[in-house]
Write a structure and sequence with these properties.
Elements (H helix, E strand, L loop, with lengths): L2 H7 L6 H12 L1 H4 L4 H8 L3 H10 L5 H15 L2 H10 L6 H14 L3 H17 L3 E4 L5 H13 L4 E4 L3 H8 L7 E6 L7 H11 L2 E6 L12 E4 L12 H17 L3 H36 L1
Parallel strand pairs: 1-2, 1-3, 3-4, 4-5
Helix pairs in contact: 2-4, 4-5, 9-13, 10-13
Length: 297
């Protein structure tokens, strides 16, 4: 639901102070969506408590939730060309790599590693305990889906990749059971099919995990575990560096918590790989031996 729709539904409850605050929000949504409660209240000339009350009138838990909603809405509306132009405007000519590295470092530094690690531990335990893991992603997220599928498979976890649509997607989530887990990715906009996957996981009692950026508040129903991957301003060019780091942390945390299960599986994988690699040499040796016998006859 758009902010304007929320405002229209709650018109009768809005005070003059609320309207001044909304005017400031709607005039410069990109800029003010990153301001603190005190800063946005000061810009509108109202008390900071007004921002909290307004957010609750519109159906949010507080102003931080309203701000996250605004940021997600900006990401949804920003066009790719505009995001690239915005990013280039902050970079010196001929220094694109250094500018990009600085941006990625800033986004990684903003992560609250202690709080996020606690959520990663929770997600890792859910995946370890899962009988089967369903991995959902569309668009750019498919790179993360493929990577997590490969790494989980190598560690001995059974999984199904969900990068399909309509009936194909329905067929693949149909077998989901209560002891399974759904690992879903959603960035930039709400991916088609994610609501059905989350609803189905809730119906069957499976654990749901979401890795997402500022679009997370728009994804419903709410998953049991949400790992926030802040990728920077929605008006700028965004990459998968932060969510990729979170995915790698999940894999390493699984190896740390699963009592040697994934390490043992990787060691068996290495043995099987060596065995396969040695097969052609064995055939070649037998072929040469047979040829020698034939010549000797």
């Amino acid at each position: 639901m758009s902010l304007t729709t929320l405002i229209e539904k709650n018109q009768v409850r809005l005070t003059d102070a609320d309207r001044r605050l909304l005017k400031a929000l709607l005039e410069s949504p990109t800029e003010v969506s990153y301001l603190s409660t005190t800063d946005i209240a000061g810009r509108a000339g109202v008390h900071p408590a007004t921002a909290v009350r307004l957010a609750r009138k519109l159906g949010f838990g507080g102003y931080p939730d309203l701000r996250s909603y605004l940021q997600a809405d900006i990401i949804n509306k920003a066009e790719p060309a505009d995001r690239i132009r915005e990013s280039l405007s902050h970079m010196e000519e001929g220094a694109i790599l250094s500018g990009l590295l600085r941006h990625e470092t800033d986004t990684l530094d903003r992560l609250n590693s202690r709080e996020l690690q606690a959520k990663i531990n929770q997600a890792a335990r859910a995946l370890i305990d899962a009988g089967h893991i369903f991995i959902f992603g569309q668009g750019n997220s498919t790179a993360l889906v493929e990577m997590m599928g490969r790494r989980l498979r190598r560690a001995g976890f059974h999984h199904t990749i969900l990068n399909h649509q309509d009936r194909e997607l329905a067929e693949r989530i149909l077998p989901m059971k209560s002891d399974d887990a759904l690992l879903a990715f959603g960035f930039h906009s709400v991916p088609r099919g994610i609501a059905t996957c989350l609803n189905h996981s809730r119906r069957v009692g499976a654990t749901s995990i979401l890795v997402s950026d500022l679009v997370a508040p728009l994804i419903k129903p709410e998953p049991e575990i949400t790992l926030m991957a802040d990728r920077g301003l929605g008006s700028e060019f965004l990459t998968l560096t932060v969510p990729m780091a979170i995915c790698n942390a999940i894999v390493l945390t699984i190896s740390h918590l699963d009592k040697g299960r994934s390490i043992a599986t990787l060691e068996r994988l290495a043995e099987l790989t060596r065995e396969i690699q040695e097969e052609p040499r064995a055939r070649q040796t037998l072929s040469l031996t047979g040829s020698d016998l034939s010549d000797g006859e």
